[in-house]
Amino acid sequence: MATKGKNNTLKLKFDTSWSYAPAPESKSAATINPQYDLFINGEWQKPLSKKYFDTINPATEEKLSEVAEASEGDVNKAVIAARQAYEKWWKKMPAKERGKYIFRIARMIQEKARELAIIESLDGGKPIRESRDFDVPAAANHFFYYAGWADKMEYAFPNRRTEPLGVAGQIIPWNFPLLMAAWKIAPALATGNTVVLKPAETTPLTALKLAEIIQESDLPPGVVNIITGAGVSGAAIVNHPDINKIAFTGSTEVGKIIQRAIAGTHKKVTLELGGKAANIIFEDAPIDQAVEGVINGIYFNQGHVCCAGSRLYVQESIAKEVVRKLKDRMETLIVGDPLDKNTDIGAINSRQQLDTIHKYLKIGKQEGAELYESSCRLPGKGFWCRPALFTNVAQSNRIAQEEIFGPVLAVLTFRTDDEVIEKANNSPYGLSAGVWTDKGSKIFNMTKRMRAGVIWANTFNKFDPSSPFGGYKESGFGREGGLHGLQPYVNLLS
Ligand code: NAD
After folding, report:
1. For residues 368 and 416, what is the distance between their CA atoms, to the nearest angstrom?
2. For a Cys-Cys bond, which of 82, 151, 187, 414 suits 95, CB 3.0-4.6 Å?
3. Is residue 152 part of a domain?
4. 251 CA distance to ligand 1 centroid (A)?
């Protein structure tokens, strides 16, 4: 509906009284066992700890399954299995044969794509559209991509010989469980390493489904071991003396603990940590496109994205227009059942994460910023948060400096290129950034001067297995994806 505003300008008002008819994906297409053991040496093994913990659906708080809690002894069993598999089979196998296994895993992920997507949404709370159209296809693509590299090391590293490192310990977070497992496992296998992987405690189920796929693929036992548990199990992997490499994706806080733990050991490490990405809109940008990109950048996956564009810098001359358009667009976002194909924003992953987001909403208000939340109704049960944005934010505010990891945007303004570069770089993080402008020269100027591992121009949150990903500063080091993603898993010889 269009109405005339105070100064005779046309204002668009969205009629939110209508809604889409529900279009839920069927849970019956997915099988979740009531209990999962540890996947060690190609079989399901009871935990020595004899302990299990629940994994719940964050949209309903209902229990989905219980999974084993790996003790130090269990981790030791997994590392022994990985070491034996490395010595006995994997490092000796011709590279093109290794590639075939990785290719087979990719194909099987595709075959089971629907089930994997449903489980990802049930366990993690993300909208089915995302798990179906992004997480699962991207995971399969990673396996395909690295299957191709397995027998081409001499092209990846011309004039150098390579050797695998041995056993890789891999620890992943809860925001992209299957995709993070693929980012870790595929390059490790392609380069001839064996793996012990631990998913996050709130989202173990798709990694366990991947274990089923790996078992079905006939990969030699012990090449990939998947164990479950929380930080203590992760620490047991980090501290195990027979691990050659740690690949960690998670918070900067835990990344620092890991780096301290392995200091002075022979272990190699890559750390993919937190972020507070600057998304910058210049006055010459295509505004509607930019607004859509900002919405995607921060509200995609409930803002549970390390590279989420959580700091928006808008050039002063267009700030009012951009904020108005953002608010209008926020009103149209559908928050609700992750399994519904209409849903844009699903459930927050856990009660703990919801508490963190609420804490920051309070901090933002105390800091004097102005909070705007969409007016949508939230479901009664489960963990939910309305898409929110703060205006009147100062660069020094905690909401502009710290990672919130939720659907909360901090909007700041700028006048000149130099000013925005200084502000964008004024962050302990440096994972990603975005630039929206009509001018190619400005894009190159900005990307050269900004300290971020990935910078998108006139788009946001685009991923491809052939593109490296990783951070500057406290966002970590080492790259995953692309040719660069092979290097952390090999020793380069003369
Ligand atoms: P987290 O650091 O709390 O946990 C990550 C993983 O580490 C989990 O599996 C957890 O069980 C394990 N862990 C916890 N304590 C440990 C310890 N002492 N030793 C070893 N392992 C331990 O992070 P999270 O809350 O699961 O994930 C969110 C964080 O991950 C955010 O900061 C986000 O930015 C970051 N992240 C980064 C990337 C990236 O590519 N840079 C990608 C996704 C998420």
Report:
1. 25
2. 151
3. yes
4. 4
Give the helix ranges, DSSP H, for 46-94: 72-85
306 is catalytic: yes
* 36 CA to centre of ligand 1 in angstroms: 22
Domain at 175, CATH number: 3.40.605.10
Q: In this structure, what CATH number is given to the domain that contains residue 445?
A: 3.40.309.10
> 428 phi and psi, to 5 degrees?
-70, -15
pLDDT of 141-186, one tens digit each? 999 999 999 999 999 999 999 999 999 999 999 999 999 999 999 9
- Residue 431, in any domain of the structure: yes
Q: Which residues line ligand 1 (CB under 6 A)?
A: 171-175, 198, 200-201, 230-231, 234-235, 238, 249-251, 254, 257-258, 272-275, 306, 403, 405, 431, 471, 475-476
If you measure from the C-alpha of residue 175 to the centroid of ligand 1, how many angstroms do you get, rounded to a whole number?
A: 9
Return d(Cα 236, Cα 401) in angstroms, integer: 32
The burial class, CB within 10 Å (0-12 / 13-18 / 19+), for 87 is middle
Residues 379-403, mean pLDDT to the nearest whole number: 97
Residue range of the domain that includes 95: 27-273+475-493
For residue 95, give both structure tokens: 């590279």
Residue of 298, 306, 353 to test ligand 1 pocket, by largest number of atoms within 8 Å of CB:
306
3-state secondary structure of 345: strand
Residue 20: per-residue pLDDT: 87
DSSP label at residue 220: P
pLDDT digits (tens, 9 = 90+) for 249-279: 999 999 999 999 999 999 999 999 999 999 9
Rg (the chain; Cα; Å): 23
Separation CA 342–CA 57 (nearest Å):
19
For range 50-69, the mean pLDDT: 98
Domain-embedded: residue 21: no
Is 157 in the same domain as 76?
yes
Per-residue pLDDT tens over the stretch 185-242: 999 999 999 999 999 999 999 999 999 999 999 999 999 999 999 999 999 999 999 9
> Is position 272 annotated as part of the catalytic site?
yes
**Six-digit token string for 74:** 């269990």
> Is residue 18 situated within a structural domain?
no
Task: Report the separation in Å between the CA atom of 404 and the middle of ligand 1, taken as the mean of its atom positions.
Answer: 14
Question: What's the pTM?
Answer: 0.95
Q: How many domains does the chain have?
A: 2
